[in-house]
Amino acid sequence: MHDPEPSEPSTPICWFCGEPEVLEIFDIWVDGTYALETCCGALLERIGADMADDPAWARDLLRRLGAELLTGQRLRRVCDDTGTVTLLDCKLEVRPVSFRDAAAFVAAHHSHCGPPLMHRFSLGVWNGKRLMGVAMVGNPVARALMGRNLVEATRVCVRRDTERMLRDGCCSKLYAAAAHSAERAGHGKIITYLRADEEGTSIRAAGWVKEAVVPGRGWHSARRQRSNGNNAFVAKVRWSRTLRPKPKAPAVPPRAQPAALPDWTRIGDTGPGPLLGMLPG
Ligand SMILES: [Zn+2]
Known about the structure:
The structure is a single chain. By secondary structure, the protein is an alpha+beta fold. The protein has 2 domains: about 70 residues, no CATH class; about 140 residues, 3-Layer(aba) Sandwich (Aminopeptidase), CATH 3.40.630.30. Helices cover about 25% and strands about 25% of the residues. It has 9 helices and 11 strands. The strands form 3 sheets. The protein has a 7-stranded mixed β-sheet with strand order 5-6-7-8-9-11-10, sandwiched between helices. A two-stranded antiparallel sheet has the order 1-2. A two-stranded antiparallel sheet has the order 3-4. Helix 1 crosses helix 2. The two termini are about 30 Å apart. The structure holds zinc ion. The site of zinc ion (ZN) has 7 residues, from loops.
């Protein structure tokens, strides 16, 4: 099957102004906002309305206009949940962040806890150029849990001062990445505490499970005063993910490389047929 040949390869004429059509990205700013340049205001208005109607088309249009090349980011979609401004919503990226940067982020954005005093490592999640959230991972706060080769995500914090769509997936990305990094560092388990009234959808999506309910007073003993105010007396749920760190490398011969998978993009429309055929049912 072939699509019909494009009948007019040269610049199309704008339906609105009758001039050669101009539709380009004028600029993209660090906060994800962008501006288009068009031959006329009528076309700009029409494009804007179509983009608002069909976010998938909007994303594809911005890709065709080179938004990914210009920003060096992969687009997830175009975010338009305020109804007044459209934003580039990029694929999330997780990278390590310094203690200082993570602590500053927590101080600025965490709703009820200040930053911890130390960490083993911290991770940040970026949407485009914007740091959207951090996870700080350290030794377990409860003394009874020390010495068991486990670490605790002591703060997981996603900013709330941006459009809601930009933070979709940030939380579970942080929980998944924190577990992955802890595993690579050789830890057997990672834990964290959520308030009992939090649903835990994000953390569950990252493969963590509920492990225990911890009454607020039992966890924070009266002798160890904490500075997190009311939060210390809310019942919490301990969540965990069991990790399988690789044993510390003895001199094992390298494993043979697995056979290369076929490159589907060259096969065209047939897709991953042979692989699907191997799946049960
Ligand atoms: Zn025009």
